[in-house]
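re: ur question from earlier - yeah i can do the single chain one, its not a big deal. heres the input i used so u can compare w yours
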Amino acid sequence: MQSFLFATGIENSSPRVMRRDGRIARVDQMEATGHYQRYREDLALAKALGIDVLRYGAPYYRAHAGPGRYDWDFSDAAFGEIRRLGITPCVDLCHFGLPDWLENFQNPEFPAHFADYARAFAERFPWVRLYTPINEMYVAAHFSAQLGLWNECLKSDRAFVTATKHIAKANLLATLAIMEVQPAARFIQSESSEYFHPSNPDAVKVARALNERRFLSLDLCYGYDLCASTYEYLLDNGMSRDEFHFFLDHNIRPVCIMGNDYYATNEHIVFPDGRTQQYEMLGYYVITKQYYDRYRLPVMHTETNNRDDGQVEKDARSWLERQWGNLVRLKEDGVPIVGFTWYSLIDQVDWDSLLVENNGRVNHYGLFNLDREIKPVGELYRDLIAAWRGKISNGMLSIY
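and the output i got, formated as tokens:
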């Protein structure tokens, strides 16, 4: 494996969402982008970029057919091709959506069933070593249980805490299950890097609470001893002392790499009444440094993108240059960053409505369009990989 990992991913989100008319519908990004039919072509495009790692996983809702029952047909075909091409996968086991039979993240049986699935996957594909058990745990809980958009479609602190504790426990149990099968496995926890700026002095207290809460899923998974106010928030919203101590008593940190996702939408202005609006201010460097200072784990830049639709194509290229520049500066300042990711390989669909509306609207965030033609940002990323490969290590910069 390379000492520094250049990566991309194939978007495999599959939540159930609340449509504007009140109907619940499954959204599958692999289906929307034509990946199921064109997976061989897509994997060949990833290989041609020169990447070291591909973030990839078949949608969980299709593969986990029931308790102890699995449908490996697509996984066998796709991962067989990945192995044939010599691509190193980092496997997304759950990307925002659960099987219908598990319903949603409020289900207390989800963690145990998910651990069984993770173990079964590791047994089926013993050559896989990199995993993201549950993608963006904070986002999954926030969108599902506080914003009311996905899965359980609830809007309360109690629902958020319930979703968070179940997601974090599932992530932890899956990690332990995979380690039983593949002791050499390592876990790159792709998590959204958030920050809340107070709009005025009256919003400072609210912003502080949200800036603690953004860490909650990682705090639980990494056994971080919470501040008193956050602990009270958990107890007030349904977490027991025993449930909290479960996380303190399990240590998976030695096999973890902290993955940080950063988009222009990750920073927010917060108002005294709790309302927020997106506002980019600090950037990847400052926010990632906050996460690193909290956990002191190796870091991987696991997601970023910006639009490249032919009209504002410089946005994507300048964004890539900015994110890469932030990463280089962080490494020069001693943060152990082990990789960089542009997400995703191909354009996505309907993310402008957070998947809630079924408009078929293409979001131009990929390195390739949906006709599988490389875009200017794809060419820039391919050239960046070629230029920097071997010049950047897992320690300080090594330019020669």
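The longest helix spans residues 157-181. not sure if urs matches, ping me
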